[in-house]
Amino acid sequence: MSHTSKKMKVRRNDPCPCGSGRKYKNCCLNKKEPEPENIKDMYLKKYKIKLKEQADIEAIRKAGRLVMETFDQVRANIKPGITTDEINTLVHDFTVKNQATPAPLNYNGFPKSVCVSVNEVICHGIPGERVLEDGDIVNVDITSILNGYYADANQTYFVGTPSEDAQKIVNVARECLRLGMEQLKPGNTLGDIGWAIQHYAESQHCSVVREFVGHGVGFEFHEPPQVLHYGKKRQGVVLAPGMVFTIEPMINLGKKELNVLDDGWTAVTRDGSLSAQFEQTLVVTEDGFESLTPFDLK
Ligand code: MF3
Ligand code: CO
Ligand code: CO
Predict the structure, then answer these.
(1) Positive/negative CA dihedral, 61, 63, 64, 68
(2) 184-232 pLDDT, tens per residue?
(3) Which atom of ligand 1 is the closest one to the Cα of 103?
(4) Which atom of ligand 1 is nearest to the CA of 217?
(5) Which atom of ligand 1 is nearest to 104's Cα?
(6) Distance 277 CA to ligand 3 centre (A)
(7) Residues 6 or more apart whose Cβ sits within 8 Å of residue 110
């Protein structure tokens, strides 16, 4: 089927998919729609975004399946008494055993194969001797490279029995990812995603970390665009089929400010409050999206 014969999904008053910033009706509505090849060129030239073909998406989906199988291993082993380094070993060995490579290892000098972030650690926790204790929350962020393709996802787990604060921040962070994903369809913008996340987090009196963002992914670990977890409706890049990127809101129970420890990686909440995060690798489709690292968000 030709691109032009599809039923119109962009409404007259929507931002024009060409990225001009004008309304569709005042821009490309009356022009012939660009052919898919031109859309690919346009996104590359304008935003340095590499739209993915079906074969690329299938390869990222395979990497994503491996990431999700790795989570099955991790989940079964999260309990009081395990060290974060034992989680690292588990992730590393399972990844390598499956002919894949853990992307974090040596990435910009990161020394381990997975990020493990406990309680007030927002992200980029380095696995080590820390022992998980009853009541902790722990975010495990896994990125695998399979046949040259990357998939990236993370989840926050309870260790033993969670406190009320722990339950609250984990539930809010999970809902933030779900609401961000709900915005994924051609014609919506990156700003719509950020707005949905920020609006909900702040309505729950939680805060959104600004220093770290979602990102294009697939051919590399971090590609354009940056996906902010805050923002304004109808602003930013217009979503197009074939865009593959993560949404990975980091949500704090207290204030949004952070410190990075002397190891150069570990980001912690400045006020010591709990922080939680969930992440999936997502592809925009003709009529919505598909998660390439799917897990339940209820
Ligand atoms: N997985 C993280 C992300 O979601 C990036 C970790 S970079 C590392 O983008 F070097 F710390 F591994
Ligand atoms: Co990511
Ligand atoms: Co990640």
Answers:
(1) positive
(2) 999 999 999 999 999 999 999 999 999 999 999 999 999 999 999 999 9
(3) 12
(4) 9
(5) 12
(6) 10
(7) 104, 124, 126, 265
Report CA(64)–ligand 3 centroid distance (Å).
12
Who contacts 11 (Cβ-Cβ below 8 Å, separation ≥6)? 24, 187
How far away, in angstroms, is 64 Cα from ligand 2 center?
Answer: 12
Q: Which residues contact 93 (CB under 8 A, 6 or more apart)?
A: none
- Round to whole Å and give the CA distance between 152 and 143: 4
The Cα 71–Cα 190 span in angstroms is 28
With a 6 Å cutoff on the Cβ, whether 248 touches ligand 1 is yes
- Token code pair at residue 208: 């959104």
pTM: 0.91
Place of tokens 């990497």: 63
